[in-house]
Amino acid sequence: MDCLKGKRFMCDICNAGYSQKSNLYTHRRTHTGERPYMCKDCGKSFAKRSTLNLHRLTHLEVKPHPCDLCNKRFALRTQLKRHYVTHFNIKPFSCEICHRGFVDNCDLNNHMLIHTGDAPYACQSCKKVFDRPSKLKSHMFTHTGEKPFVCELCNKRFIRKSGLQYHHRTHTGEKPYICEVCNKGFMQKASLKVHHLTHSNQKPFSCEQCNKQFRTKSDLNKHAYT
């Protein structure tokens, strides 16, 4: 085939061809899941060194790409594009098995591991398995009690960086998740999802005793104690 001319190094799994052996080695990681390049700041791993170098920019203070809808800033243009669609609830990548939608193809690929059971990183303490080494590293803190992420304002410590990021909002008042119906802002995405129910007639939580329905589980629990 013309498309394989000059490509002497062939993948024995999918027959993809490459002109350089190093590119074949990098490609093989898409089959093995190997991610040898790890970020020292957050533990996230990557198949390519170049991808790690781009990721490192996200830990810098310089964020030259602002969102023109909410003024949140990002280190990478790709991060801005990913963020931008959250304002419109666009999820163009859909799981063929459970039909869950995702913002980008990378999230979809990670999600598919749930269905395939391909989670090669196992915790030696409790045998729980993970699809990425960064998730395993974060999980290990639950056994050691280590909380490496520290708030510089109040010194409160957290196991995960995401927990620290949410906590920061209690100091800054930032509410990045905006309802597209009424423009009300929320600190957590889960809170926005619950709020969305107030604009609809959905009441997914039902009392087993009287069949009365509620928008949130907390409302159902309050009802149960009355």
TrEMBL record:
Q: Does the keyword DNA-binding apply?
A: yes
InterPro entries attached here?
A: Znf_C2H2_sf, Znf_C2H2_type
Question: Which GO cellular component term is one of those annotated?
Answer: nucleus
Keywords of the record = DNA-binding, Metal-binding, Nucleus, Repeat, Transcription, Transcription regulation, Zinc, Zinc-finger
Signal peptide positions are none
Named from the GO MF annotations, one term is: RNA polymerase II transcription regulatory region sequence-specific DNA binding
Mention any Pfam family matching this sequence.
zf-C2H2
Q: Where in the cell is it found?
A: Nucleus
Q: Where is the C2H2-type domain?
A: 9-36, 37-64, 65-92, 93-120, 121-148, 149-176, 177-204, 205-226
Gene3D superfamilies, per this entry? Answer: Classic Zinc Finger (3.30.160.60)
Query: Which residues does UniProt call coiled coil?
Result: none
PANTHER family referenced in this protein's UniProt entry, alphabetically: CHROMATIN-LINKED ADAPTOR FOR MSL PROTEINS, ISOFORM B, ZINC FINGER PROTEIN
Tell me the protein family, please.
Belongs to the krueppel C2H2-type zinc-finger protein family.
Q: What is this protein called?
A: Zinc finger protein 112
